[in-house]
Amino acid sequence: MALQDLTPQLRTRLSRMERAVGWFVFVATALLLFGFGYYIYHTAERKGWFVIKAPFHTYLQSSAGLNVGDPVLMMGFQVGQITLIYAMPPRDPHNVRVEFEILDPYFRYLWTGGSYLKVNAADFLGKRQLEVTRGTNGYALVVTQPVSVKTIDELKQLVTQEPGQWQLAQDVTDVNSNLVFGAYTMLDESNLQVLAEMNLESNSVYAYNNTVNRKRIVASWDGRYHHYKIFGPGDDTAWIRAVETPPVSDQLQAMILQVQQALPNVLALTNKIAAVLDNTAQATSNLNIAVAGTQPLLTNFAVLSGQLREPGGLGVWMLGTNGAQQTQSVVANVDTNLLLLSLTLDHLADITSNLNAQVQANTNMLGVVSKTVGDADDFVQGLKRLWLFRSAFKKENKGNTNAPALDLRPPRAR
Predict the structure, then answer these.
(1) Domain that holds residue 277
(2) Which one is predicted more confidently, 42 or 139?
(3) β-pairing verdict for 172-173 and 166-168
(4) Of 141, 136, 52, 59, nearest to 101 (Cα)?
(5) Does the model's pTM come out above 0.85?
């Protein structure tokens, strides 16, 4: 049925439906385009399409375990990825060139002092990964400030027009290789005057304006010439030193080789250990025999110790049974003698006490006794002088011819 055959009411309803369907299709298409654009933007942001990328390259001995697209790490973060891996020409001193990119702001951590590339083992199947280390001092490896070569006269004009904006992009040394000005030194009229007096080659230096930045890396530090190298069409990557560890397979192979070399020594050591064990077993058997031989000795020692534990056992063991009895008899006799001596001393004490008592009772006894002794002495002296008994008391005077003659007169006459 043709459209003109419809009633006006049906044609009005159909027009409204067409407009609604059109708006629905338009809104759905817009949402689809917005979602697709957001996905592209999110993906680009995640992959770093809108950030500055610093291109680097390094040289390795082997590309084993490395693939294009593998991540590059720094301090545990993924800061970039590998972009290219290829072998160097036959006569080139290097084996493999690896190029990779470091995203902003991580490339700003890379300085000449302390930054290098490590090639580490990622697993035990030969996979390896790249890791860059954070620098601690020195100069930035890559910069976004445009570096240019300016003459001293040009710099004088620029410093006058734009003071505090121009800095050196190189190290300036004298004829003795002593550092005069380092990179990043702010240029002024006094510095430029010193540079003019140094008569530099072509009377120009590398410099940059610290207020100008690009959205890309424009120069990298060249350690051979001590200045920033301006990127050209054919050379737009910065070099970084690599420290490469051998792959895990090579390390395992070296370990196996060492084990194979050490295996004969290990076997010889095992044989020596077996001989030592045999000698130990033989020594143990001999020790068992010796222990069995000492059993009678241990039995006798047990019997002897039992005897010593008995009362008086030590004396019986040292003197024997008869010796102990004789010792007891001697001790008994000694006790008897000591008793008799004690009685004798008691009697003597009684006698002495009686004598003492008599002496105390008779006070004149000592005087009488003393007088009796004196009279006895006079009596003896008189007998010596009596001619009848003189020969009995005659003394010999040998060798004395001058002795006085004896007086033979009676005592009364003398």
Answers:
(1) 248-293
(2) 139
(3) unpaired
(4) 52
(5) no
CA distance readout (Å), 99 to 187, 255, 271, 364, 391: 35, 32, 55, 147, 154
Q: Is the pLDDT of residue 191 over 50?
A: yes
Query: Do the strands 238-239 and 53-60 form a parallel or antiparallel pair, or are they unpaired?
Result: parallel
Within 13 Å and on the Cβ side, how many CA atoms surround 346?
Answer: 6
The number of beta carbons lying within 10 Å of the beta carbon of residue 128 is: 22
Is residue 52 within 8 A of residue 215, CB to CB? The reply is yes
- Spatial strand order of the sheet with 77-87 comes to 238-239, 53-60, 96-103, 77-87, 71-74, 128-132, 117-121, 242-244
The better pLDDT of the pair 237, 368 is held by 237
User: Are the C-beta atoms of 134 and 115 separated by less than 8 Å?
Assistant: yes
* pLDDT one-digit tens code per residue, 368-385: 777 787 888 777 777 677
Q: Which of 77, 74, 96 is nearest to 85 (CA)?
A: 96
Give the tokens for residue 197. Answer: 């007096």
Beta bridge partners of 113: 137
- Residue type at 322 in one-letter notation: N
Helices then strands (H, E): number in the chain? 7, 18
Total domains present in the chain: 3
Residue 180 located in a structural domain: no
52-97 pLDDT tens trace = 999 999 999 989 889 999 999 999 999 999 999 999 999 999 999 9
Q: Could you tell me if residue 377 is inside a domain?
A: no
Q: How does DSSP classify residue 145?
A: S
Q: Report the C-alpha gap between 50 and 28 in whole angstroms.
A: 29
Within a domain: residue 335? yes
Q: Which of 232, 263, 293 is the last residue of a domain?
A: 293
